[in-house]
Amino acid sequence: MWHTYNLMQVGDSLRASTIRKVQTESSTGSVGSSRVRTTLTLCVETIDFDSQACQLRVKGTNLEENQYVKMGAYHTIELELNRKFTLAKKVWDSVVLDRIEQACDPAQKADVAAVVMQEGLANIVLVTSAMTLLRAKIEVTIPRKRKGSCTQHEKALERFYEAVMQGILRHINFDVVKCVLVGSPGFVKDQFTTYLFREAVRQDNKLLLENRPKFMTVHSSSGHKYSLKEILSDPTVTSRLSDTKAAGEVKALEDFYKMLQQEPDRAFYGLAHVEKASEALAIDILLISDQLFRHQDVATRSRYVRLVDSVRDNGGNVRVFSSLHVSGDQLNQLSGVAAILRFPIPDMSEAEDEDSSSDEE
């Protein structure tokens, strides 16, 4: 659904099966309404994506008249999983074709699950190749240890670990997930994994015992969702997840920040600067957010597509970041486009200042 959302643009035509409420008038003049399933072709006007429910709603005007819906009438189609639809565009550019290839490649679906926790708080997150989805947030109040008695504290901790364990069993599909990362500050992660497998043995839970090698403990600074970035950039994790797209994105962004600190003349961000670097054939790795390709203005969108094509034609690597990943969110704060260069291009800003001053003269 996320890939479909990125493929679709305003002005495309979409043909799909949908349900329409139809009013009928009988010979006696009484009016009744019924819901009928029909196939409509819409000219797309607005596109809404719900990342939690993974649903896509497309609103537009009808292009082909049928017995229930007039030409030009508005309708909203809710695209459903495993139902066919036909999408027609005036132009299929390279970015859109790449997206189709990526959606059809089973290797791209190397999924990761993460449990980011601290005492009393746990977030169960699924990291797919396209997005980061929060599946469950577990909060349990844990009283402090009292002098001479820790029983209340220990009972609450056990309740918390039990809730996290149930969350893992409910939300993680071990047939798809290749690795489960458990991250926390201090010893919480170790205490939890010890509890998890002790309970699995006691309850004879074969699912957890068979998938024990998939669990991996990592340090994180807190139990909040944003700590996922530091978990994914941990060297031991990146080596284990080398085949997943999310880990590749995090590493590319880390490399960009390092370059920005060490050799600022080899790290550019902002469309104007990156385009100038592309003209000089200097771009080694282009980092670009998929949010930019959803721009409604055709001229602006084609400018980004031209940039991507130019970098590829000149032997550079292009990494399209998903805006639903933590790394994609960070890249959007840097204008959504950045580049690591093959060689330094000094004084870009000074050159721009000189240009502007000469224009003023």
UniProtKB/TrEMBL annotation:
Entry superkingdom: Eukaryota
Matches recorded under SMART domains: eRF1_1
Main location: cytoplasm
Coiled-coil region list: none
UniProt keyword list: Cytoplasm, Metal-binding
Pfam families, A to Z: eRF1_2 (PF03464), eRF1_3 (PF03465), Pelota_N (PF26356)
Membrane-traversing stretches: none
GO cellular component, one term: cytoplasm
Cofactor entry: a divalent metal cation
eRF1/Pelota-like N-terminal domain boundaries: 1-105
GO molecular function: metal ion binding
Cell compartment(s), UniProt: Cytoplasm
Family, per entry: Belongs to the eukaryotic release factor 1 family. Pelota subfamily.
Function according to Swiss-Prot or TrEMBL: Component of the Pelota-HBS1L complex, a complex that recognizes stalled ribosomes and triggers the No-Go Decay (NGD) pathway. In the Pelota-HBS1L complex, pelo recognizes ribosomes stalled at the 3' end of an mRNA and engages stalled ribosomes by destabilizing mRNA in the mRNA channel.
Name of this protein: Protein pelota homolog
Annotated organism of origin: Coilia grayii
